Amino acid sequence: MKVTDECINCSACIEECDNSAIYNSGEEYTIEGKTMPPLSDEHTFIVPELCTACGNCKEACAVDAIEE
Prior knowledge:
Number of domains: 1
Number of strands: 6
Strand order of the largest sheet: 1-6
CATH topology: Alpha-Beta Plaits
Radius of gyration: 11 Å
Helix content: 10-25%
Largest sheet: 2 strands, antiparallel
Order of helices and strands: EHEEEEHE
Number of helices: 2
Mean pLDDT: 95
Oligomer: single chain
Strand content: 15-25%
Structural class: alpha+beta
CATH class: Alpha Beta
Distance between the termini: 4 Å
Low-confidence stretches: none
């Protein structure tokens, strides 16, 4: 799953992610105990290593800014 440039940063997808794989723009994330830099400073992003492609985020997106 990937967040596209159409994202409006509403954060609705973050709340729907059971895997805590989605973060706000500019936010650091932790994987395997290591803090990583943000994948995007422009819009919400999905960490591929944490995503199981369940589709909950895609359903929650108001502007269809999440694609597989």
